[in-house]
Amino acid sequence: MKQYNDVKSAVAELEKMQERMAAYNHAMGMLYFDSVTVAPRDTIEGRGRSMGILTEESYVILVNEDTPALLEYLKANEDHLEENTKLQVKELKEDFDKISKIPMDEYVEYNMLINEAQSVWHDAKQKSDYSMFQPYLEKIVNTVRKFANYLDPSKKPYDVWLNEYEKGLTMEIADTYFETIKKELVPTIQKVVNSKVTVDDSFSFRSYSISKQRKLSDYLMKVMTIDRNHCNIGETEHPFTINFNSKDVRITTHYHKNNLLSSMYSVIHEGGHALYELNCDGKFDFTALSGGTSMGVHESQSRFFENIVGRSKGFTSFLYPYLKKLFKAQFSDVDEDMLYKALNKSQPSLIRTEADELTYSMHVMVRYELEKRLMDGTLSTKDLPKEWNRLYKEYLGVDVPNDAKGVLQDSHWSGGSIGYFPSYSIGSAYAAQMLYHMKKDIDVDELTKQGNLKPIVDWLKERVHKYASSKTPAQIIQICCGEDFKPHYYSDYLKEKFGSVYKL
Question: Do 418 and 144 touch, CB atoms closer than 8 A?
Answer without folding.
Answer: yes
